[in-house]
Each structure stands twice: as structure tokens, then as C-alpha cells.
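Dear support,

I submitted the protein below through the web form. The confirmation email said the job was done, but the results page showed an empty box. After a refresh the structure appeared. I'm attaching both so you can tell me whether what I see now is the final result or a partial one.
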Amino acid sequence: MIDRPRRASDTPAEALVLSRTLVLVGLMGAGKTSVGKRLATLLGVRFVDSDSEIESAAGMSIPEIFASLGEPAFRDGERRVIARLLSEAPCVLATGGGAFIEPRTREEIAAHATSVWIRASLDLLWDRVRDRPGRPLLDAPDPRTVLADLDRRRSPVYALADVTVDSRRGASHESMARGIAAAVRRFDAGHPARPPTIGVAEE
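What the results page shows now:
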């Protein structure tokens, strides 16, 4: 799915000017899509959701791809779609939770984009995803344990992202988007990539 930006006059003058795509990474429920849309509007660029692009290219939903082709085939298609998107004009790109975990996809992102890990606590992630369908990896008798295991295994890889921003319950998408923009400006300027903790509202 691609959301077109608002008019240039709606974009704050102090907004970051992108020379590279911003790739949002993190577990399901972190806020990559909701915050990403607001960030794209703030920066005056398009928003792209890689999962939606994969579904469009495959002609089937993510759960259908997992069921019929398996996760390895999905990851290969995901890598190719992300590589294509990174070759286009800079945008805000929200990726699926497993995308950054794949070494070849991570290499593509490192070479052509700035990566931002939206980090959230397990409790917050679970509150956001527990009643939402369409999460193949959580299709298990004890999905919270599965999510906890994903968090434990994936967090060290997410920590390789260029910028890390913390998500907390109750703050606004606007504050999160502005915080990410500020953190990326600091990163681009050669300052430490780790910004102060910033909050994000519930999705």
C-alpha cells in the first residue's frame, strides 16, 4: 500500500529532507505502519508498506503465502520487493517483523537506506496484536509465548539498526514521527544514533 503525501505546504519547514529511504523495523505491533504514515506526511514523502506490496505482487495475502508457499519463499519474495522499493525515490518504508532479520535483506537496507528500530515492550506489543488476525507466526496454542520468543531472538538483530526509538503507551503518533525525524537528523549529522526515549500512541 502506498499513501501519497499531502501538499508541500502541509510539511513543516524544519522537517528532515530525505536523501535515503527511512526503513522502519521492529516486531509486529511496534507501530511501524501507523507512525510511518504520520512520518511520511511530516516529511512530505510517500509511505509504503512492504507487506502490502508483497501481497500485491503475489496476488494473495501474507497468511496465504505462508500456507501455500512457506516462509522461505515468502522471505525471498520480501527481499526482492524491498530491494525494488529501495531503488526508487526516498520514502518511508514500513517492513514486516522478519524482514530485517534476513541477512540479505538487512544488507540491502544498510546499503541503500537508513534503518529505524521502533522498540516496544512485550506487554505493549501483546496488547496491540492479541486480538488481530492475519499474523501467521502467532497462529499457535500459546501466541504470547511465541511473541516473547520472537522478541528475545530478534531484538539483538534489530539493535543493529542505525537509529533506535522507544515506543511507549499513550503518546501521539505526531510526537513519535517528530522524534524519529530528529533522531535521523542527529544520525545524519554524525551524532550518537540513540535518541532520548520517545512515546507513541496506541495503534
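Response: this is the final, complete result; the empty box was a page-load delay. Residues 2-188 form a domain with the Rossmann fold fold (CATH 3.40.50.300).
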